[in-house]
Amino acid sequence: MDVRLLELLVCPICKGPVQHDREARQLICPADRLAFPVRDGIPVMLENEAQPWAETPPAPPSLAADAHS
Ligand SMILES: [Zn+2]
Hints:
Blueprint (H helix, E strand, L loop, with lengths): L2 H6 L10 E3 L4 E4 L4 E6 L2 E2 L7 E2 L17
Antiparallel strand pairs: 1-2, 2-3, 3-4, 3-5
The site of zinc ion (ZN) has 7 residues, from loops.
């Protein structure tokens, strides 16, 4: 995919920058926690096409489960 094209992509909801997840072939808006699909190399930046995105931590939580939240 053209990197310069990606730089122009923003979330259609919050207008914030999106992250390209190459492995999952989707674009992620961390702010909205939404994942936009990439079909045939074309990002589908449509709100009704977005899927809920749950961030997967690299390591299992150990002491992160505190009582503050
Ligand atoms: Zn967003």
